[in-house]
Amino acid sequence: MTPRQRADRRAGLVFLAPALLTLAVLTLYPGAWVIWLSLQQRIPVFGIERFVGPSHYLFLATDPRFWNAAWVTLAFTAISVGLELVLGLALALALRGQRWGRRLALSLLLLAWALPSVVTAKLFEWLYHPGAGLVNFLLGGRPLNWLGDPALALPGLILADVWRTMPFVALLCYARLLTIPVEVYEAAQVDGAGRLASFARITLPLLRQIVLIALLFRTLDALRAFDIMFVLTGGGPAGTTETLTVYAYRSLFQTLQLGFGSAIGAAVFALVMLTAWGYLQMLRREGLAE
Amino acid sequence: MTTAGEPGRRCSRAIGGALLPALLVALTACADQPAGRGDVTLVFKHAKILGPSDPLPRLLREFEAANPGIRVVSESLPWSADEQHQFYVVNLEGGNPGFDVMMLDVIWVPEFARAGWLLDLTPMVAKDELAPHFPAAIAAATPDGRIWAIPWIMNVGMLYYRADLLARYGLEPPRTYQELVSHVARIRAGEHDPRLDGFLWQGKQYEGLVVNVLEGLWANGTRLLGEDGAVFPDPERAAEVLAFLRMLIETGVSPSWVTAADEELTRRPFGNGRAIFLRSWPYAMGLFELPDSPVRGKVGIAPLPRHARGSQGMGATGGAHVGIQRHTRHPDAALALARFLTGEHAQKAMTSGVALNPTRMNLYHDPELVRGHPNLPRIHELAMAARPRPVTPYYLMLSTTLQPELSAVLVGVKTPAQAMAHARRRLEYMLAGILDGPR
Questions:
Q1: What CATH number does the domain located at B7-155+318-388 have?
Q2: What is the interface pTM, i.e. ipTM, of the complex?
């Protein structure tokens, strides 16, 4: 390394320092604090504050409520993000092919996306109403107990979440679709490619990167899903819709078990970090993150 | 907490409260500066009072007129009870809350007292002063025998029934749950209406479910917490109650959707004439008696029925108390406001204005009030026999631990025995540090 390069490197570090410092203060410090808390039994109401080591983690390891919440979180994330992706993509393609009313369709999409999730949840509370709800009416008046049946509650929530967040994926994909020049398709047509071939060889590969980014955002959001289940089912029935964040909220804010709740929070943190890391690997392979 | 010396901050905060009356009070408070020395500004935190005419702003102005030198800024809390609790906890734990007087849900009082967030009123308030309030309300305000809050608004669980339907079949309101079940069978057999449901209650996984189960336990002669603090001291009777609730759903006496139902989701179908019985709170009566209500004049109220092994059914009490924040700079003024709000005059105004039930027993026979609210004497009887939910600082921990387990029984995922065993195991871990902790 020449002295010039060394000097550049030093200058680079100096310029980076504010960003790194901010990151450290805003993420590393609270993260470390949560982990420190999770090693304590700390319940301020009762004046309890003592170090208990990994005992909360050991309890969670055999806690059926925790594993159930973890499973619910993963199932919710996998299914809702999967559906959002497929439907969002289909919608984006449909939008591109649409001749009129595009602006109206876009505004309607944005409306669903822009509604606060608590409002969405209240909306679905009535849509899912067993007697007076629109969903059962459309299904031919069968009195399906959407939010009170352990087999239907999670699918019901997933549907509500897909309705709300699919527009996000659709809009991202649509924006990318608009940037693909028509000439590419025309050239393919000249070469004898059918519609399916142009979709598989042109559209999909060109959408890959934006889809990955949409997936990253949506997955991390879904892993932390909270308001929709909190408002619609309170985690019930029988805890079948209780995600890890709902469990953490109940422990942290409702019952003020700061230590125990932080242990659940740390588990969510680990899960999110792991997923984010996985996505980063994929993005790196795509050349999107270096 | 705040004196008139820093009105700017106070104004913006009150505006955040978004309640128009609060805004007006805040604006006048700001306009009147500079304030003389000795002037006191109290901040009163309360839930939004719903109803045709919220009497609170007028009452607060009356209080100000009667107590020159004291101003009251009223700020409303977030919408749901969960959020209100969180608001209080975060601000009180932070140690610098911007309020002096608080409206408290009855179940929070022991917790807040234990945490040291409430001013101990025992030295200032004589026991006799509480005597005119319902015993169940006093019990909830005086955990460990000290006075931590003053009762303000009363709530009690009760049974609503369709008096017209019962009369058509010559039936009396049920005294036992078996009678209730057979009444439902009899009436539905006669009515041939598939849209008529039997018995509605609150089975969603939330606080209301715990209330419904508590009432069932009392109706079967047992409790949730034994003398020694153990949960389900009589597991056999508790299992009977839980199995009965499951049976109601399995046999269709209650529609299967009660497992997702809260107060409003059950109140509406009953109010539309689609159910025979409903377990709810007194607020529902006012809505059933509205001029355009399909069940107007057809609804009766009765005590909750009892189970086979109980001597009497009884409702759980709820409602609100007024407490004072421990580090208030104006304890005397705050106490004066608490006394005024919980006093006869203010409770009467709240009852006639928004049909919230008073905690003062004599108001239930006040001729003027009874004229507008003819059910008051009946509610008085029900509230006299009612019980508070377990008065313990860890009630919320108890409740949130029980909710998924009880819900699991209702939807048939767990047997009562399994659910009780799981709840017990969790509570033992959660409470281990508390029961043998300091104090």
A1: 3.40.190.10
A2: 0.83
